[in-house]
Design brief:
With about 200 residues, this protein is an alpha+beta fold. It is built from two helices and ten strands; from the N terminus they run βαβαββββββββ. The longest helix has 18 residues. The termini are far apart.
């Protein structure tokens, strides 16, 4: 009489988009390497280089970024459409960031502001490259945690990890907190991050 067998439904999921475009990644890798050699800020990351945080350089305005901006626009628009939102709501204001993280380099936990969709696309992923860590976006769950008996159940996860491959991309809501763990590779892990509104 008191036996229970509750079924599980999941509401308010955090939807991520993903895909592969190795051909375009191969096209952009030498371009981004050259831009990082010429324009990168090496003070923003520990042992890393980035086009972020510079007043005199905006990667999205670079003349060779036309295909990249079209790719970001298409991925972001289709991502929103597939979730049931109007992808045409995007204004097309695209912010691109090229990053090269060297051995032991990392990117601390953060979210992206003033955009609708964030994403990252991997151009060079050497063996032992650092994963991308996503944190539980529901902050109130961190205030009290029930002891976990099944850590393989996604409902118990406090974070999850993305181990990318070259050409892989992912996009997600701008409010998802994420970080890049210290890179164990002896070579650069090169990616382009984007924000679009």
């Amino acid at each position: 009489m008191t036996q229970a067998n509750p079924q599980i439904e999941s509401y308010f999921p955090t939807p991520f988009g993903f895909g592969m475009n190795k051909e375009l990644a191969d096209h952009y890798l030498p371009i981004i390497k050259r831009i990082l050699d010429e324009k990168a800020d090496s003070t923003f990351f520990y042992k890393g280089r980035t086009t972020h945080n510079q007043d005199d350089f905006r990667l999205a305005d670079h003349p060779e970024m036309g295909l990249m901006k079209e790719f970001v626009w298409n991925v972001s628009k289709e991502y929103l459409n597939s979730l049931g939102f109007d992808g045409n709501h995007l204004q097309g204001d695209i912010f691109l960031i090229a990053n090269a993280l060297e051995k032991d380099s990392f990117h601390k936990s953060h979210v992206h502001y003033d955009c609708l969709v964030s994403g990252v696309w991997y151009l060079q992923v050497p063996e032992a490259s650092a994963p991308l860590e996503f944190e539980d976006p529901v902050f109130v769950r961190t205030l009290y945690r029930v002891p976990i008996t099944d850590s393989t159940n996604p409902h118990t996860w406090q974070n999850t990890y993305l181990y990318p491959k070259e050409g892989y991309y992912t996009c997600f809501p701008n409010w998802v907190r994420h970080s890049v763990l210290p890179n164990d590779s002896m070579d650069s892990r090169i990616a382009i991050s984007w924000n679009i509104r």
